[in-house]
Amino acid sequence: MLKLIFLSFFLISYSLTVFGETIVWQMNHAPPATIVEGKYKGEGFLDLILKQLITALPQYEHQIIVSSMARSIFELQKQKNVCLPALFVTNKRKEFVYFSKASVAHPSHRIVFNRKINLSQKNELSLRGLLENKTYVLGLDNGRSFGNKIDGIITQKPYLDNVYFFSSESPNRLLHMVKKGRVDYTITYPFQVSYYNKYNDFNIDEFKIFKISGAKKYVTGQVACPKTVWGKKVIKDIDIVLKKLKPTKNYYQALSKWWETEAHSDDFIKYYNDVFLEN
């Protein structure tokens, strides 16, 4: 009887150990960062980064699941053993997420209008000014963050009537809505606009892109895991491998795929060395 009890305890313990040593990576279809379908499947720059992380973490089993951003955030809030390879740090997310050192760095968000819109030809626009204007409707993906500063503007109660939120597995849908005039503008990365035009074989740029007044030129994302004992351990291990991987040529090349021109600018190289590698 004692042997049977011991065996049962051993099997339960073993099952829990195996489960605890599996990282479920949640990926959102967000080309060209993550590309989970189509002719460029698996060739997103975040796909390539994740492959390097998985190779460097052989002590874990790894599963990759495609999900929406809203679902991924929900799973983290429920303290599931899931991680995202890159997520913006916000004060709200710190309440339920452990973040790694920076895993990605790239150009910051831009305001994107249909090219037919009649706007001034300035290089940048005030997001607050657009929302106060009430002339234009902003379309955004539910659950997606743009950093504390932009989130703080968007979520102010007087502006919410001009913001349309919906759940989608691809931000390209937002660009399509802008192109078709279903929403007036969205906020996304310049390399996502380039990918959209290339993927759809457009000969001319379908959009007008503006920098956001007061926004940083480049931003970073961090690996995100639940704020649990398990999540803390995983993040600790990830930080160790990031310190080894980030200075390598392979990591830089993976990170800069799909936006090579700006990635090789003096400004970004300086940012990569002075900020990204140090954080």
UniProtKB/TrEMBL annotation:
InterPro entries: CHP02285. It comes from the Bacteria. Gene3D superfamilies: Periplasmic binding protein-like II. This is Solute-binding protein family 3/N-terminal domain-containing protein. It comes from Pseudoalteromonas denitrificans DSM 6059.
